[in-house]
Amino acid sequence: MEFNPGNRIVQLCIQGMSAEDNANTEKAGEIFLQAWNEATNDFEKFLAAHFVARHQQNTPDKLKWLEAALASALKVNDDGVNSALPALYSNIAKSYEELGDADNAKKNNDLSVSFQNNPSDKGPFYHGTRADVQIGDMLIPGFMSNYKTDLQMNHIYFTALANGAGLAAALAKGDGYERVYIVEPTGTFENDPNVTDKKFPGNPTRSYRTLAPLKVIGELTDWVRQTPEDIQKWRDRLANNTGEIIN
Questions:
Q1: How far apart are CA 195 and CA 145, in angstroms?
Q2: What is the DSSP string of 188-245?
Q3: I want to staple 201 with a disulfide (CB 3.0 to 4.6 A). Which of 48, 84, 210, 234 is the partner?
Q4: What mean pLDDT, rounded, does the chain reach?
Q5: CATH number given to 8-114
Q6: Does residue 141 contact residue 156 with C-beta atoms inside 8 Å?
Q7: What pLDDT, on a 0 to 100 scale, did the predictor assign at position 207?
């Protein structure tokens, strides 16, 4: 299931996170519970339960919601959701530790470790840019960041979501046309740490990075393009972002 910022439950979770940022924890908890009550599929239930869990006042209730999130996540079996499993199992383990249940704590810690390997995502993968390249070319790390002045990137980034690559192309520096290339990693890759578990659990945007070149194997011409107004909103968010890029 593709992560969609326009999804009703995703939007409610964003509202809840905004309430958290404003230190209105009671309101945030109400919004997250509303998201749970309105969720209609396992992806939405996983997402909502994750946020409801962190607003519980005692460990048994927190564990109940974490296990509800896990049960829904396992039913989804999606690469974006699976990326949340290490942290989810780890949080469940911590709850069992607090309850004095060493056996279940160890079991869930072991499961957390087992899901921390390289991403299993098989793609297809996309890279958004304004550069004009040819089929067979290699895209390599070392270019300047699109999002922070004077920062040379050690990795090259890509995604399994075509619309996400399209947004990256729209935000890329330069005057060229927005391009979304179909790419093939030539080496190992990892979840992008700049987005994984930062706001939403796991890596729902299926964003990755690698030190190895990406081979261009095709070009995509059809994706959901952002309106100029939406692009400007994204630029404003990036301009106001004071967080450090993990490079």
A1: 15
A2: --EE-TTTTTTSSSS-TT-EEEESS-EEEEEEE----PPPHHHHHHHHHHHHT--SPP
A3: 84
A4: 89
A5: 1.25.40.10
A6: yes
A7: 93
Residue in the structure block whose two tokens are 């409610």? 12
- Per residue in 8-50, pLDDT (tens digit) is 999 999 999 999 989 999 999 999 999 999 999 999 999 999 9
Helix (H) or strand (E) holding 62: helix 59-76
- The closest of 192, 206, 197 to 147, measured between CA atoms, is 192
Residues 130-183 pLDDT 10s: 989 999 999 998 776 666 667 677 899 999 999 989 988 988 877 889 999 999
Q: How far apart are CA 82 and CA 180, in angstroms?
A: 25
Task: Give the Cβ contact number of residue 67 at 10 Å.
Answer: 16
Q: Fold match between 8-114 and 125-239?
A: no
Ranges of beta strands (E only) in the chain are 125-129, 138-139, 156-159, 179-185, 190-191, 207-210, 214-220
User: In the CATH scheme, what architecture does the domain 125-239 have?
Assistant: Alpha-Beta Barrel (3.20)
Extents of the domains making up the chain: 8-114, 125-239
